[in-house]
Amino acid sequence: xxxxxxxxxxxxxxxxxxxxxxxxxxxxxxxxxxxxxxxxxxxxxxxxxxxxxxxxxxxxxxxxxxxxxxxxxxxxxxxxxxxxxxxxxxxxxxxxxxxxxxxxxxxxxxxxxxxxxxxxxxxxxxxxxxxxxxxxxxxxxxxxxxxxxxxxxxxxxxxxxxxxxxxxxxxxxxxxxxxxxxxxxxxxxxxxxxxxxxxxxxxxxxxxxxxxxxxxxxxxxxxxxxxxxxxxxxxxxxxxxxxxxxxxxxxxxxxxxxxxxxxxxxxxxxxxxxxxxxxxxxxxxxxxxxxxxxxxxxxxxxxxxxxxxxxxxxxxxxxxxxxxxxxxxxxxxxxxxxxxxxxxxxxxxxxxxxxxxxxxxxxxxxxxxxxxxxxxxxxxxxxxxxxxxxxxxxxxxxxxxxxxxxxxxxxxxxxxxxxxxxxxxxxxxxxxxxxxxxxxxxxxxxxxxxxxxxxxxxx
Length: 459
Known about the structure:
Elements: H1 14-34, E1 44-46, E2 49-51, H2 60-74, H3 77-90, H4 92-95, H5 103-119, H6 127-146, E3 148-152, E4 155-158, E5 166-168, H7 175-183, E6 188-189, E7 195-196, H8 198-212, E8 232-236, E9 241-246, H9 258-277, H10 280-283, H11 289-309, H12 348-367, H13 371-388, H14 431-448
Antiparallel strand pairs: 1-2, 3-4, 5-8, 6-7, 8-9
């Protein structure tokens, strides 16, 4: 179980985060010098060098989004140029990609961050540049929302790349593109010129995910533990009925793939912030602000509590809570994670994602008047950050292109690199782990310096 240091202060993490960005800048430039765009998107490192892995194109936005965040923190124009040029050259095809559920990852990491910098007046204002980012977000949000499976009773979900029968936990974090597209006044146009609200689709997808992918300890099945997350839910598309839990990257449908848990935690926490910032009249047709915020808090807190309870003491989780090799590690939850063990890999990328979710959830609860529980989650997030942003997870080797070590991609498929002499993957990085470490660092820095709070949406 995660141990929270009540003495850990936000300010104490500033030197840690500053070192993170110092190393990150070197690695972004390293990757830029060596990466061949013809290979596709960089996904994970193999012996310290980023490689691609064809499954779906969901990591390109992290590559250029990292450069944009690096500029945000450092002010070095070289990184802004990398982010802008990469976005213009590589991201348009992702904006109109009809085969993935990852628009919020790709588009918001690039165009979303750049539009935010325009709004914050951190880059020189150019109307055409602003219009480019806005149009990209509008189109991307509509394309994402069009991947829709209706399950009846005014409910449905954005289906995964597996097909219309498949609802992934990951997609909650992609809802951010629907949110900003809605803020920009956009809608999805359907048959007979039907205007489909992107906000409504966001809320419907979130409700369906909470209902079927997240457990609340209410006896749904024999493995119903509050806060547990199923990576995938399967539906009968003929009648919309739910059939069973499933998983693609976890060990089983009845254990919890911890990166899926982290996506749920961060996705609901940041959408909680977004929804709280909307005018109340926008949420009135969907049940009202208080009802919606209460539902999102319930999900985020359940996931947060599960993460805290089923992580080792330093908050770095193993890749799946039911992974069979964990039994060989003894009381592994009573000590820090062991990335170099011979039984099961940890997943540091889950930690970079979850830490931000814990911090945002804590801030939301404090803002809502729940100071005690809010500060507890905030301290939990800072505890995870203090560990994952330092050695042995932070990579200081200038020859290693990854930033955050001991991240895994697809353990069941055996895609992750296993170093010579080792039995399990370790010592490697992923694009999403590195990118989310930078998002986490940016959030911490802005909070510590009382700068404008970092949000994905327009304030």
